[in-house]
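Record UPF0434 protein MTBPR1_40256, 62 aa.
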Amino acid sequence: MSTPAVDPKLLEVLVCPITKSPLRYDAEAQELISDQAHMAFPIREGIPIMLAEEARQIDGDA
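=>
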């Protein structure tokens, strides 16, 4: 089963809801990474979940 692709145009306009900084797309993990907030926002069925309570903390070196 393949994961749905995220629209590249959508990725261009999304920013971190906490810091308003750009996000980095991790296609393998299906997450949007905020390096400034040290958080990873999940992508479920091709839809980015941009809620802080749904994000997971990542360490600063990730």
